[in-house]
């Protein structure tokens, strides 16, 4: 939240970081990276990809719990990660209205801070990694999933900036918000499990 607050402060006050941010944004937009691939990566952060995958994983865990008996309170982490995902659109929309940051020249208009696509991808795919760990994935496999999640989110962020949909700082702030929401989901899960008989949190 410190990172998110600092980014927001720079946007609201038009701080010195914004000049460097916009220069970097222009450089990335003029790079040789293929626009078609950048568009694909940017779209991968939309509501029809990560949230749908997360919903499918939650349904699969519910089905597996019913079929095999499941661990006690298996629903705690799916519930909190689902709530974290549901909080992304209203939180992002609220900050967009409050900051009213102008978009890159390609887009025009205002209300571009933070990036909804970047926040959606961060929370959705991060939550999937958490749920897979909760489903007893091996520690080595889990670290591979974390690495893939980080690389994928970096690619989505790059695609958003390359296509001129956002400034880099919009993306960084969204990552900070997303990590905070995921941390909150895990923290609430631990509290729920402790209160429900001391079960071990995922």
Structural notes for this entry:
It is a single chain. This protein has 202 residues and is mostly helical. The protein has one domain (36-195). It contains 8 helices and no strands. The chain has helices at residues 2-13, 17-29, 35-43, 50-68, 76-99, 116-134, 139-162, 168-195.
TL;DR of this structure?
This protein has 202 residues and is mostly helical. The protein has one domain (36-195). It is 73% helix and 0% strand.
Q: What do the pLDDT scores average to?
A: 89
Give the overall shape: elongated
> Structural class of the secondary structure composition?
mainly alpha
Backbone CA Rg: 18 Å
Which percent range describes the beta-strand content? under 5%
As residue ranges, the low-confidence spans are none
Tally of individual domains:
1
Distance between the termini: 23 Å
Helix content: over 70%
In sequence order, what are the helices and strands, one letter per element? HHHHHHHH
Give the secondary structure arrangement, pairings included.
Blueprint lengths: L1 H12 L3 H13 L5 H9 L6 H19 L7 H24 L16 H19 L4 H24 L5 H28 L7
Keywords:
mainly alpha
